[in-house]
Amino acid sequence: MTSLKMTNIERAAVFSLSTIMSLRMLGLFMVLPLFSLYASHLTSATPFLIGLAMGVYGLTQAILQIPFGALSDHFGRKKMIALGFCIFALGSAIAAMSHDIWGLLLGRALQGAGAVGSTIIALIADLTHPIQRTKAMAIAGITIGMSFSLAMVIGPIFASWIQVSGVFWLGVLFSVIAIIMLYTVVPTPTVIAQPIETESKIRQFAALLKHPALMHLNISIFLLHLIFTASFVVIPISLQSLAGLQGHQQWNLYLPTLIVAFVICIACIRIAEKKHQIKYFFIGGIITFVIAELLLWAFAQSLLLSALSLLLFFSAFSLLEAFLPSLVSRTAPPHRKGTALGIYSCSQFLGIFIGGTLGGELYGAFGATKVYLFCAIIAIVWTAIAFTMKNPQYSTTSH
What we know:
The chain is mainly α. It is built from 14 helices and no strands. Helix 4 (77-97) packs antiparallel against helix 5, helix 10 runs antiparallel to helix 11 (278-298) and helix 10 (251-275) packs across helix 12 (303-331).
């Protein structure tokens, strides 16, 4: 009989890989609260290029997630993860040394080229028993969510000490730490690499793309990050120019809203899993996004209502971000998780790229508040799509 508790190896795998993923997320997101304000002072910066620089790492991630995931099925997860972090470190260094928007664009593109998100999730799946996999993915999702919350708070604080360029240098340091942890703490899975058969791979890839349940999840992660990135093109700017909260003060708003949002997220996950009602909490999270964006659109000048809007925004994002990797892991066919999670991560980062680009373009053409209205409309469409999803099956066996 399989134990309901994780083994020591499983715990080491889940927590060390979650930490590695979090280090990468910190390197990406610590600059997010101040990115628009910082980039606007660089040479050649325009609203469109600011949005593009914010989201371009999503394009390179989208292009390379699938190759990284598929190659990790053949060459091994650890080698591909280490390679990804080396590329990420190079991009962070270039961004740190850039004095114009074009250098920042190049650095962010290289940060994204280290596309190891799907490979790390696949390694977690390799190192955990099927009965523990949902728990493992939930732990990873929560840890990543916590790193995002931490990044939103400490990024502006670090920037006040070492400037935004120094925050990019921290991304280099985090990459080194992650590679050391990968080879000293993370267990090595006993997975035999499969030979690459091009025709077979193409058929499997096409089948995964057309898989109905995975298609819904891929669309969801795309729209989640499109909304998030488009919103954060203008959130720091509107908080400063409309609500009167200066950039170096904004962490005072992010900290309490993120803490409360985290508590709400944990409570919702526990109830959803216990009641087997993930679908309805999932839809509730999207509807919460709609409400948050409409409040930001209508009351951007009010600091109090902006705080309420951000509480709803972060609660919805954290909840959906925690649900989705677990749902993909339990839905993906056996021995194809690397490729399936590559497609999922590709969708995620393509959403980041489209969101940043559209957010910058809409901000330049119509102003900050119209970006919020655009995101609300997208979330309404997403709600309709989510109603067609099936509530996930609960079992103790692998799919």
